[in-house]
Amino acid sequence: MTITEQAVPADSTASSAEQDLQQKAKDHLWMHFSRQSVLEEHGVPVIVRGEGHTIWDSKGKSYLDGLSGLFVVNAGHGRRRLAEVAAKQAEQLAFFPIWSYAHPSAIELADKLADLAPGDLNRVFFSTGGGEAVETAFKLAKYYWKLQGRPTKHKVISRAVAYHGTPQGALAITGIPAMKEMFEPVTPGGFRVPNTNYYRSAELGFVSSTQEGPEREREFGLWAANRIEEMILFEGPETVAAVFLEPVQNSGGCFPPPAGYFQRVREICDKYDVLLVSDEVICAFGRIGNWFACDTYGYLPDMITCAKAMTSGYSPSAPRS
Ligand code: PLP
Question: Rounded to an integer, what distance in angstroms lies between the CA atom of residue 271 and that of residue 245?
Fold first, then answer.
């Protein structure tokens, strides 16, 4: 370090480091789902540290990380034990594909997940994140029906407003038109049914003479589930491969399912030979109170997609190393 550098007070060094970061962000960082012009005009908060549910930015301001880094860091920030285990793994073996080979962490995690998963769900296919998990489940559903000798079953049904990721196939399942219009045409085969926001039930077309209360909510749940049956019949059961649903539908406001909804959906899927995929990219690993949220709501899906809190952000989700 030179004498001139030593003479600079610490806070001015910090502010020039901050300015440097802001400039680099402005010049090179393309942010996700963000208005780039805001970054360019006002700069961006730079988060540098976390402890439990608190995070700090580069200016020392603290925040409550209420979304857990977008539903990822369920175990909280700053857990030394997790960091040490990740470091040990990196020292031992950085990466290896699960392609004709395996390694202990992939085998053990698959075993653990199979143990935690409900019913007979006992095979784990690792991918790199939630969108790719949804994409993979879509592909698996199509291939499953091909292997069953029913190759025309390829369409997928999901709820309007629901978010299921941004790869081209997952976008076919995501029910938010504004997130897709730039990339149209996306993978064909995605069909939408009304979402289960009870407070918008009238707008969705639900009509009831039952008094406001639990009975009416249950009736709405059955009504919403029956829209899935209607769509299967409209498109033709021989063309529908799977229904993708989040246990608690996050996008638009976090809607828990109305009572009876998933039980009726399960019945419908069984009746028409359609796979039920529980998209638990947000809801798994304790967020709803159980390892898998389908357990909370009492239904058994044919596939579960999960990611995020599986590693709590302490390592990339695919144990491919
Ligand atoms: N599915 C659901 C229900 C999600 O909430 C998300 C992301 O928030 C995804 C899929 C996509 O996951 P990722 O961002 O890891 O690709």
Answer: 18
Structure tokens at 262: 């998933």
Q: Are 160 and 195 in contact (CB under 8 A)?
A: yes
Q: How far apart are CA 281 and CA 253, in angstroms?
A: 16
Determine whether the shortest distance from the Cβ of 153 to ligand 1 is under 6 A: no
CA nearest 55: which of 84, 76, 26, 38?
Answer: 76
Interval between CA 309 and ligand 1 midpoint (Å): 11
From 31, 33, 164, 255, give the residue whose CB has the most ligand 1 atoms within 8 Å, as the site to mutate.
Answer: 164
Residue with tokens 């005009």: 41
Instruction: Provide the token pair at 165.
Output: 């990721």
Check pocket membership of 224 for ligand 1, CB cut-off 6 A: no
Indicate the length of the chain as a whole number. Answer: 321
Q: Where are the domains of the chain?
A: 2-66, 98-320
Helix (H) or strand (E) run with residue 235 in it: helix 214-235
The tens digit of pLDDT for each residue in 171-193 reads 999 999 999 999 999 999 999 99
Q: Is 129 in the pocket of ligand 1 (CB under 6 A)?
A: yes
pTM above 0.85, yes or no: yes
Evaluate: CB of 167 within 6 angstroms of ligand 1: no
8 A C-beta contact, residue 47 and residue 56: yes
User: What is d(CA 1, CA 52) in angstroms, rounded to the nearest whole number?
Assistant: 35
Testing ligand 1's pocket by substitution, the residue of 132, 134, 304 carrying the most ligand atoms inside 8 A of its CB is 134
Q: Which fold has domain 2-66?
A: Aspartate Aminotransferase, domain 1 (3.90.1150)
Low-confidence ranges of the chain (pLDDT < 70): 1-11, 317-321
Q: Under CATH, which number does the domain 98-320 receive?
A: 3.40.640.10
Q: β-pairing, 54-57 with 47-51?
A: antiparallel
